[in-house]
Amino acid sequence: xxxxxxxxxxxxxxxxxxxxxxxxxxxxxxxxxxxxxxxxxxxxxxxxxxxxxxxxxxxxxxxxxxxxxxxxxxxxxxxxxxxxxxxxxxxxxxxxxxxxxxxxxxxxxxxxxxxxxxxxxxxxxxxxxxxxxxxxxxxxxxxxxxxxxxxxxxxxxxxxxxxxxxxxxxxxxxxxxxxxxxxxxxxxxxxxxxxxxxxxxxxxxxxxxxxxxxxxxxxxxxxxxxxxxxxxxxxxxxxxxxxxxxxxxxxxxxxxxxxxxxxxxxxxxxxxxxxxxxxxxxxxxxxxxxxxxxxxxxxxxxxxxxxxxxxxxxxxxxxxxxxxxxxxxxxxxxxxxxxxxxxxxxxxxxxxxxxxxxxxxxxxxxxxxxxxxxxxxxxxxxxxxxxxxxxxxxxxxxxxxxxxxxxxxxxxxxxxxxxxxxxxxxxxxxxxxxxxxxxxxxxxxxxxxxxxxxxxxxxxxxxxxxxxxxxxxxxxxxxxxxxxxxxxxxxxxxxxxxxxxxxxxxxxxxxxxxxxxxxxxxxxxxxxx
Amino acid sequence: xxxxxxxxxxxxxxxxxxxxxxxxxxxxxxxxxxxxxxxxxxxxxxxxxxxxxxxxxxxxxxxxxxxxxxxxxxxxxxxxxxxxxxxxxxxxxxxxxxxxxxxxxxxxxxxxxxxxxxxxxxxxxxxxxxxxxxxxxxxxxxxxxxxxxxxxxxxxxxxxxxxxxxxxxxxxxxxxxxxxxxxxxxxxxxxxxxxxxxxxxxxxxxxxxxxxxxxxxxxxxxxxxxxxxxxxxxxxxxxxxxxxxxxxxxxxxxxxxxxxxxxxxxxxxxxxxxxxxxxxxxxxxxxxxxxxxxxxxxxxxxxxxxxxxxxxxxxxxxxxxxxxxxxxxxxxxxxxxxxxxxxxxxxxxxxxxxxxxxxxxxxxxxxxxxxxxxxxxxxxxxxxxxxxxxxxxxxxxxxxxxxxxxxxxxxxxxxxxxxxxxxxxxxxxxxxxxxxxxxxxxxxxxxxxxxxxxxxxxxxxxxxxxxxxxxxxxxxxxxxxxxxxxxxxxxxxxxxxxxxxxxxxxxxxxxxxxxxxxxxxxxxxxxxx
Lengths: 529, 529
Known about the structure:
Helices cover 30% and strands 22% of the residues of chain A. The first copy, chain A, is of the alpha/beta class. In chain A, strand 5, helix 5 (122-128) and strand 6 form a beta-alpha-beta unit.
């Protein structure tokens, strides 16, 4: 068949070329923890990435090879990404918060040939170096001098073409954090990355254009920073990167750089908002905040809405690149009262074109979309995993559906709302209690900084909820006060059998509550006494 | 290679499914010329399109067959589109304003098997029926009763799957209007249509979301209505269709349906604005207007800006699906004065990701991007033509560039500005005069309804500009007044040697000035006297 339309491959480097050509002056800013700031532009980034591609070639890296990064959010990290992907290699983002055993496992499983790492992780690298036999070359990604990325770039001229392969070739390798079992690698392709980015800029998604200033608080090693560097390139947006989540620096940077768009998990927003309220330093230019990883408490949503910020849940996972759904302001939003707005904003939203959702019961039969009947959430689409890296079997069922492990309801208008992780639901007397809803209700209580609900084994009910609570500094909130508060927000039979105050709660490497550790410790508390 | 990510084909029917599933209640409204209004939803449209697909199958239509439409903008036209494309056929949109010979040529060239036509074109169909031997079946697309589309739908149940082919299979066939030579067919593919639609919803392009209400004034037979039905499906926007361009109906419909987004050629906007100003009936909800086909006069841009409407040039052609560039509000827009805003808004803008532009001189060498040096505009990308339908050779050069025939400058920031059609430039004493700039300056003069500048043969200068002018009703504007006005807007040597007042100007079937006819008539006026 003779092609009637031009048959360009959807490849990641062309995103960068687009930004460099048509939005070349828009900045990429890094606000370093020491207070210094570096500024380059998309045009410079494109040139540096070409030098990086030449440097990888000089090191003997071939298309298809894995290049690992162990780094926070900053410009050289992006240079490494685009340079490696641009010469056909696969970027494997390591999560520095993983345990040693997990870091050893993933590097060996991926058989990474090169590691680019932040100076701050020198100790970690020295400790694990001998356990990473596939890594031939260690490169310091920040700083300068011998062994640094800068040293490699300085001898290159940037005069090269991108590697031009098929759009279905791999671009990035991201491992799930894996609270249970070994981490699993999701191998993004150029096609999946580009389509995901094209979908991401839409007004109902990240809403990015060349006038946007986007600061992804989400680390670049979490599902490629939710794909924001690629969506920002399509939009030609200014990007602002912070290698730290320290609230003072984040908040100052947001104000100074006129950040309009940001994205991150609820725990980071909790501390940022606490700082902003204490210091009267709410970032004034902010108008779009995406919250993902887990559900945001209603109090947080209300705080953003009051400041005129459009707050949107993003739902997804490493396996979905990650954009699965985004919260949306429906028609009639302006006419809704605060409670209605809060109810709508607490939902996970609707998928972009490309993503399909299905809700099924335990037998795999469709669950009705009535806004109350929960079901297991399945997903499919061109940026959803088909088979994990080096796995023997597909990750999808015969109809191509991927089982997310999440429990959700679908509202009649096509809006999805996560109820809980399937494994975190609490089953009391044959009825389901959502641990997420219980936690978010608890966080709305004055004096509560963080809360975790788990099911504890109960002789009569099977499971009963218990609540682990971290108080805010200076707070003396009591178990009775908390119960009183909860009575106004959840059904009476959802009230926890125990409220336990703790100094801190355990988190996974991606900042989510590590419920498995809590269950290990507290599951038998109602029977052991 | 085992697919790591899911490998869904980018097919047009999935756009419709997406809208039906996640924005099923958003309306598709048709405001008929007789004042009646029909309303369906995306969910209903999807169901009707499935019935249409069944009906085509029942008629013996096979995937790859051409199905022609001769129809204005209305719901059944969309049903026919999605039904035909959904069962694998190719929709060939006929332009009812074409001359008989062109209609005969394109139908035979495409070898259409079915024609769906508006009752209003019954006479045209009857006249040409015998000249269209490939058409086996004539279906009235509006109305009901025997021989109507409705009759076909009524016996189907909509219980069918879409035809599932490769994304590079054709979806639509659109012929260029061809002011010179035979019309040429551009065969869009499912992939090109879907990617074009994904790019189109972005904030810097059509800016469409589920809260948008979009009325494409541009006819569906002009480059698939600029792809708006497909972009609207991705966004889940409400669509409003008018089979007529009558300003009163358009304006009333825009107001009643709270139209937020619209798109059309300057001539239609001229009459709509004239009506709105006379009747004090400017559509209040309007906030985004795309103007394409030819450059908008500064006076029109100023009128929209004053009303708080973001006005954006869209540049493109049938060969580019058509989205090539879109005018954009740059960073710092709010700080610009009116003249600066006008200057920026008069540019054709920047391309979405996917489209690349190149500016070359007559020798094919790159022209500098300084905002003043004109060059021939070339374009490439995944929704740009590669080879015309049934042509023997590619429409692109060895590097894949398509020569647009437009003359443009590129500004240093990557913004493109059309200067003229290459064939419409006036060459006076070796220097170029832009006919478009001269016309737009003339339209800014009170009393001028429309103007056309062409080069007339001149014994000394080679060519000199002459201006054909249509006065507004009641205006008595004189040649001297017009010259006085022009002196403030163009270089003195650009002033026309003759100003000729005419009752009307000839247009192509797509509403553009038919300059070839003017040149035929007036080219020798300066030498013949």
